[in-house]
Amino acid sequence: MKNSQIKLALIQHIYADSVEQNLKNLEAQIRRAAESGANLIALPELHNNHYFCQTENPQNFDLAELLDGPTTSRLGVLAEQLNVVIIGSIFEKRAAGLYHNTAVVLDSNGTLVGWYRKMHIPDDPGYHEKYYFAPGDLGFNPVKTSLGKIGVLICWDQWFPEAARLMALAGAEILIYPTAIGWDRQDSDEEKERQLDAWFMIQRAHAIANGIPLAAVNRTGFEPEFPGAETGIDFWGNSFIAGPQGEMLAQASTGECQVLLAEIDLNRSEQVRRIWPYLRDRRIDAYKEISQRFRDQSDISNDSGSN
Questions:
Q1: What's the pTM?
Q2: Burial classification of residue 11, based on how many CB atoms lie within 10 Å of its CB (0-12 exposed, 13-18 middle, 19 or more buried)
Q3: What is the DSSP string of 7-49?
Q4: What percent of the chain has pLDDT over 70?
Q5: Separation in Å, CA 58 to CA 84, 161, 230, 290
Q6: Which of 32, 58, 171, 262 could form a disulfide with 249 if both were Cys (CB 3.0 to 4.6 A apart)?
Q7: pLDDT grade, residue 17 (50/70/90)?
Q8: Can you list the domains of the chain with their CATH numbers?
Q9: Within its chain, how far is the Cα of 21 from the centroid?
Q10: Active site residues
């Protein structure tokens, strides 16, 4: 029987000037986390490079690598050396002209045991991801590791309750979101606070609604839209770990590189779900409309008339 106790570490990351320097910094932080007893370590979204999706530039496709390329191999060596599970993030080149935003999961023996391709792809000011990434085609399936079944989702996925629910229904014991999200410097302080509060609330609600722990690991620091620009994204950090009732177990700062640690007992989900049996009481017979893009008034009227 596997040990239900996990010590989770989130590596809140500040972008350095090169891929090699980023990987060196991350390796040092991973080793520090392992020395602190962590056996599950998660890195932010697209951690090797600056957040290049702020602009549409075909040269940025040169940053992509194969699924089993140098980053995955390097993280695998670390995972085996330190006897830890590592969740990394790559700009995946799947084929010529076909790219994904992909999370990779390395088990404690260094083996690539699974990966997840980001399903929800944003196209918003400063986040032009549809230019770079095809939507994921692997569905919402947790990765089985030596520590348990990990439901990995990525950034924009964190706003969609359907993604979290489907991971939970497939047996995920914890949800982990590698993330790259921040503020526009032109937004007011009040708007920034509203955005951050919403980010916390939606994800803590996923933990509550599914009765499982959840963690979001963000990058931090200002990254200009292009070198020397005053415009860009202030990545807000605030990586956090929540329990199965949405309780905050640990939270990082806004602007600092940080190794965030928390103890998690996966067995606690069983106790929480006995008190709040959402999965038992779901009306799966009444949810068929959830697969519609939107329910127009005419559709609702027709439905009512047919009953």
A1: 0.95
A2: buried
A3: EEEEEEEE--SSHHHHHHHHHHHHHHHHHTT-SEEE--TTTTS
A4: 96
A5: 36, 33, 22, 37
A6: 262
A7: confident
A8: 5-305 (3.60.110.10)
A9: 23
A10: 45, 118, 155
